[in-house]
Request: fold
Amino acid sequence: MSVFRFIFQNQGQVLELTLEHLWLVGLSTLLAALIGIPLGVVISHRSRLDKAVLASANIIQTIPSLALFGFLLPVPWLGERADRLAILALTLYALLPIIRNTCTGIRGVDPAVVEAGRGMGLTESQLLFQVELPLAVSVILSGVRVAVVISVGLATIAAAIGAGGLGEFIFRGLAMVDDRVILAGAIPAAILALGADLALGWLERRLRAR
Reply:
């Protein structure tokens, strides 16, 4: 039986696990953006903080995903629900590209444009929301794009702690030594990553052109 026939025969479960995967990735990326973009804005204006913040985010990236899940398991409330734990871990992994690109995008705004805004009487908050963020939005979105692709891949490992997602098929296939079951999880996950990359890449180009 080919892998595509296997997917067709188990399409209900494949759809369910795909939706779980999207939930994990979507929520964790949203949380990472809500945390990472403000952090990136702060360190772009306060250079003394950038090394500490980026170093912390870099350290998180170096921790193996399974080890991070293991570290978080004993945490009260989080360890009670595997999906909460997985979302927190994925959020932590997604922070670095979002923080770094936000900082880079804000600092990359032409100083002459910022000075022109100040000359027009704009306050610092008005400069941020009306000048800096609109001009940096394509660079920020590029960071979100990287974070989403990373999260799609890492979310497959969340199945190891019972958080669901397409990793369920991958781990089940490894236990059964069945390539069809492994690919039934790997192929949809790869399609999700490619689809997200293409869609966000298209949006990034549109925003840059504007």
Notes: The chain has a mean pLDDT of 88. The CA atoms of residues 22 and 196 lie 11 Å apart.
